[in-house]
Design a protein that fits this description.
By secondary structure, the protein is α+β, with helices and mostly antiparallel strands. The protein has ten helices and 13 strands.
Length: about 325
Amino acid sequence: MNEFDLLRKIRERVARPDDRVLVAAGDDAAVVRPAGSVSVTSVDIFVEGVHFRLVTTSLRDLGHKCLAASLSDIAAMGATGGEAYLAVGLPDHLGERETLELAEGAAALAAEHGVTICGGDLTRADELFVAVTVVGYAEATDRLVTRGGARAGDLVGVTGALGGSGAGLILLERKPPGIDIQAGERLLDRHLRPRPLLEAGRALAAAGVSAMLDVSDGVASDLERLCEQSGVGVEVQLDALPVDEGVAEVAAAAGVDQLDLAAGAGEDYELLFTAPPARVAEMEAAAEQAGVTVTWIGVVREGEGVRLLAADGTERRLQGWDHLARRSGPAAPA
């Protein structure tokens, strides 16, 4: 496998005409005309054995998922997707075919969202890794949303449903019996091919959310980060969590609590946000217009940290994904 021939073939698969891009892959650096007055940049690393296993995912799905996770960060800021850059470390057992499959998976998702893959890098590595940088744009800073704007009295909302990705991973790893085939396929899709909610992120930002982030590591962990940045505390009613269809059945078959999946498994890439009670109707209307639902799951309080409350008022301790831990959560890779 020749590096330069492979790079040329990758460029052929990811190239997409775009007026913003003046110099794309193939030169020393990309040259881009910004699509807005403010740029938003996110960097993610995905490592074999930590974030994925090649025995349970195709390279095409991996390319899709890595880019989707990074675009989800752009969505959580309320920005529009712009450019993406992928750096890939290839172990000896992967060749040209697998590398091109990975590029094709990322390119297909990029095209769906008007994103241009402008370049990246290739190197040899002991384990496969994919490092993704994405750049998004907004017309002004006041169009963006951070994690730091939540205030006491705000409500906590989340789009869509939770736990589907974690249940999909259990289906891949453990293959519990007795799961409906159609439900299982949908949960596998939730895990392997997540959808970044760029339109919903822009709609919620325009409607006036006070703080927002995406559900990448699980509601329990992600809300902790929001609390830290906003200097507040949050109470979540666990029985209010919108649990994805089929999660309860997978959890029961695998012998885990469905709340561990809904609040702790992560990788659902829904949007988790806070908003003043007076803006509830606007939030729900904006979300509906963008094709997603909103569920109100808690409230922001004075103080610090996250309290996860069961229906009887008792507090539960649930943990999300920790990228530096060897294991975290019932669905995490060993």
